[in-house]
Amino acid sequence: MKKLLLVSYHFPPDAEVGGLRVQKFAKYLPLYGWEPFVLSVDERYYPLKDFERVKDVNCKVFRTKMMLNPRQTYTALKSLISFATRKKGNSTEGSSAVIDEGAVELRERSVSGLKRFILSLLWLPDDRTGWILPAVIRGQVLIKKYRIETLMTTSPPHSVQIIGYLLKRITGCRWVIDFRDPWTLVLEKKRGGVNTIQRWLEAKVIHHADVVITATDFVREYYLRVYPDLPREKFICVPNGFDLEDMVLAKTRNPVKDEKLTISYLGEFYVGRSPEVFLRAVSDLVRNGKIPLGQLRLRFIGKVRHFGRKDLEVLLSELGLSSITDIIDQVPHTKALEYMADSRVLLVFSPNPFMQPMKVFEYMASGAFVIAFTPPGALADLVKGYSKGIVVDEDDLEGAKMAVLRCYDMFVHSEGRERDLSQEMDESVLVFERKNLTQQLAKHF
């Protein structure tokens, strides 16, 4: 069996969703002739852990500590110097001290822009640079010890790709890059010294890699435009997906119940994600007698108590929806799948036109309706291709009302039978099953 080193910052028991993609690749690669070895960070660096995910791990996992990154080193030195200065002190008090403090403040303001720029240079490409050296040292040892010929690095954090670049140069391994999220695409409209360095780093990495994997065709096409001098076949799209085994188990443990129309959101609200338009749509439908309040059940699961500067509970109270809404803090992935299986409608909010959140594939595999509040782009195209998918513009209140009312009408006219997961899944969904995707991936090793 051929051997592969997978380098990923996120890996079980890390609860971050970013670890799921590589976790499932590692699970199914042996079916296609590859023995994966995983290199990741020590578990202490994961702020939230989900140990149930470890049950799914069937490969050797090696972990390393991290060093302080340059910015952390700067902060530590600054604190040390500040402490030493305070300890030494001086006897100057009164008005002279006030004048000195004022002068220092003025001087600091005058150089604040330069200071921010310099500090940003200490955090390139991200705040995980402290893992680069330990991972390169350990990775080199593993490649030599196990006679590994192929290397795959998955990001973000994009420091992982710097690790891959160095291991490629040191060992000569075939190197496959996996961009779960794009690197500099989000910087496309921003110009400046730091962004220029980020693009230079990305170009260095992409030019030296043997294969570049993206999670959406949108991002693949972007890279083809940015790097027209590179062979088109170098850029491959292997989308996110779902594990059929996981979904069947979730359905068995928690079959859908049809007493009420259950609408759920799972995840967190960040970078412009907001449920406000959806909630105002539901409130208007209830107030105008289109949907009885008692026929609805709303659930928000994960890091959802706040969005932007707003409080979810406060908004629910203002809209008269508190009595039908459950707010549930973050749960293990297996429990999240059970909530999906127990929902008739699942929501996704994404202002990002070039990403397809991993949960959307699990949403579709559950057989529920999926309402995506998103602009035209990769996510909109994915949901439109799903037979129960509905796309609504982020700020379209009337469109949101129509989407919710359509789901309610379908719910009312259904016969109340429990959904059979295997029977409901059509070809447009099955192509995203993890085994199929891993088989596609393995062809490029």
Notes on the structure:
By secondary structure, the protein is α/β, with parallel strands linked by helices. The protein has three domains: 2-67 and 126-238, Glycogen Phosphorylase B (Rossmann fold), CATH 3.40.50.2000; 70-121, no CATH class; 244-430, Glycogen Phosphorylase B (Rossmann fold), CATH 3.40.50. The protein has 18 helices and 15 strands. The strands form three sheets. Strands 3-2-1-4-5-6-7 form a seven-stranded parallel β-sheet, sandwiched between helices. It has a six-stranded parallel β-sheet with strand order 12-9-8-13-14-15, sandwiched between helices. It has a two-stranded antiparallel sheet with strand order 10-11. Helix 6 packs across helix 7. The longest helix has 19 residues, at 70-88.
In the CATH scheme, the class of the largest domain would be: Alpha Beta
Name the CATH superfamily assignment of the largest domain: Glycogen Phosphorylase B
Figure out the total of helices: 18
Strand segment count: 15
Topology-level CATH name of the largest domain: Rossmann fold
Strand content: 15-25%
How would you sum up the major sheet? 7 strands, parallel
Helix-strand blueprint:
Layout lengths: L1 E7 L9 H11 L5 E8 L18 E5 L5 H19 L6 H16 L1 H10 L10 H14 L4 E6 L3 H13 L2 E6 L13 H16 L2 E4 L2 H10 L8 E3 L6 H10 L7 E8 L7 H12 L8 E8 L2 E2 L2 E2 H7 L6 E4 L4 H9 L3 E5 L8 H9 L2 E5 L4 H7 L4 E4 L4 H17 L7 H4 L2 H4 L3 H9 L3
Parallel strand pairs: 1-2, 1-4, 2-3, 4-5, 5-6, 6-7, 8-9, 8-13, 9-12, 13-14, 14-15
Antiparallel strand pairs: 10-11
